[in-house]
Amino acid sequence: MREEELRQRLRSTAEAHRPDRERMLARVERGMAEGPPAKRPVRPPRTPVPWLRVAGATVAVCAVLVLGAYAVTTAAHREPPEGSVAAPPAPRSVPTAPPTTEQGAPAGVLSASGRVDDGSNAYWAQSDLVVEAAGPLSTLTVELRIAETGGVNSTGAWTSQPNDAFVASESREDGFLVFRWTLKPGRTVPAGTHTFAGQYNHAEGARDSGADTFTVRGRPAGTGADGGGGTGGAAGANGEQKAAGGFTPE
Q: CA end-to-end span of the chain, whole Å?
């Protein structure tokens, strides 16, 4: 049978086919009378995988630890109940020493400290004496004694006080170059810090100031006999005070 003849027969058969409409409607009506199809059984939920169980347990443990730490911290910082007074810590006892000057001069109305000036060099030096007066002084004598260590010769002296308030002098006594300032009668040194300095040449090299000394004597205004700048006798006589010591190297 040829292909063209086969196609012709299939076409003729299709055109001759007539569907059974009544039979189709009867099948539809029968299906509607039977009701909806039965529901499928519902599958139960899956159990959580093991790692989710472990993660949940870890979170629960962390929550317990955080709550415990918070409770401890709150208890530690809890305010004392109203009406109770916390005892203050006992103060530490710190031993205190009586005040002294840099070179051990006695404390009081009058004190002093000496040092070699930083501007000193291998040929020249300046010895500074700082006098501190807690109140006005009616008498004051300042003495710097520079040991003769070789080539020591004065090049001058100065003070932060008015020059016309003192009688200044230089001399050599018992192996020392001595600078001395004596307050004139009727003059007063005010309370505060005052500087007296002696300048001198010396032999080349680093000079040893270990034998240099100073002495300061003064009387607070209103104690004893005022006027005059002498030493006033031994320390303590007529209210006079004394400070003495050496010079700290530069």
A: 137
